[in-house]
Design goal:
The chain contains eleven helices and ten strands. By secondary structure, it is an alpha/beta fold. It folds into two domains: about 140 residues, 3-Layer(aba) Sandwich (Rossmann fold); about 110 residues, Rossmann fold, CATH 3.40.50.1860. The longest helix is centred in the N-terminal third of the chain and has 17 residues. It is globular and about 50 Å long. Its EC number is 5.1.1.3. Provides the (R)-glutamate required for cell wall biosynthesis.
């Protein structure tokens, strides 16, 4: 089973920010990515809807023979990680807003968090704040519409810049020296965020930590292949394939097979690896 693929999913293409970290750290692993674009963004949906989608996609990925599933979405992790892990026959890793690493990184004790409404209003986020945010001043900023801008490929547009300025304003006014990105779409906006905030603010992207956790999990389960081969990428989407193909060209460097996501998980089929180059 060490040669089996790793499954990754998000409500759209935001999870590619996590996929890039996984491929850099684990270049020999085959990857299957599900872009649930027909239901993006999860941050605008009810916990019940998100849980149902997360469970169905996880069933699909394990049906494809995946040895590990990464929920590359903060909102899905907050709403469904517990139930998905309980039902999955393979390990499941989620992502969380970087409250802990931000609290450890701040020098002046003031931290900003950018995330979706679903993430910031979840019980899981409240638990994170109670556990790691008591000793800092935490400014939690709901960013309605920001993930949509990334989905549309508008990472540098005037509209995106205007949204970011509005959402970052209260964080800047409080003098935060650390900013955590609580949505996997937001790392694609880091250049614009740095331009607005300036060089003195530390930006926390938890994608690297997720990849390192995946490597630890695979080693513990003896599932990491000992090989120098380049892994392959296969992408499934519930949305418009032409649009997702354009998004892949913008946010991923390398080849990938693109397929429609079945509404019901099919029986496992052999994974066909395609050679891809490491992202820049």
């Amino acid at each position: 089973m060490s040669s089996a693929p790793i499954g990754v999913f998000d409500s759209g293409i935001g999870g590619l920010s996590v996929l890039r970290h996984l491929h850099r750290l684990l270049p020999c692993e085959d990857l299957i990515y599900v872009a649930d674009s027909a239901h993006a963004p999860y941050g605008d949906r009810s916990p019940h809807e998100i849980q149902a989608r997360a469970e169905e996609i996880t069933r699909f990925l394990t049906g494809q023979g995946c040895k590990l599933v990464v929920m590359a979405c903060n909102t899905a992790t907050a709403a469904a990680a517990g139930t998905v892990r309980a039902a999955s026959p393979v390990p499941v890793i989620g992502v969380e807003p970087g409250v802990k690493p931000a609290a450890m990184a701040t020098r002046n004790g003031v931290v900003g968090i950018l995330a979706t409404r679903g993430t910031l209003q979840s019980a899981k986020y409240g638990h994170l704040v109670n556990r790691f945010g008591r000793e800092i001043t935490l400014i939690s900023q709901i960013c309605d519409g920001l993930a949509d801008q990334v989905e549309a490929g508008q990472t540098t547009s005037p509209a995106t810049r205007s949204l970011l300025r509005r959402y970052l304003a209260p964080i800047m006014e409080r003098g935060a020296d650390t900013l955590a990105l609580g949505c996997t779409h937001y790392p694609f906006l880091i250049p614009l965020i740095r331009e607005i905030l300036g060089p003195g603010v530390t930006i926390i992207d938890t994608g690297g930590a997720v990849a390192r956790q995946a490597l630890r999990q695979l080693r513990e389960e003896n599932l990491h292949p000992d090989t120098q081969r380049h892994g392959g990428l296969s992408v499934f989407t519930s949305g418009d394939r032409e649009r997702v193909a354009r998004q892949m060209e913008a946010f991923w460097e390398g080849a990938a097979d693109l397929h429609p996501l079945p509404s019901i998980a099919p029986p496992a089929i052999p994974f066909q690896a395609e050679k891809i180059s490491p992202p820049a």
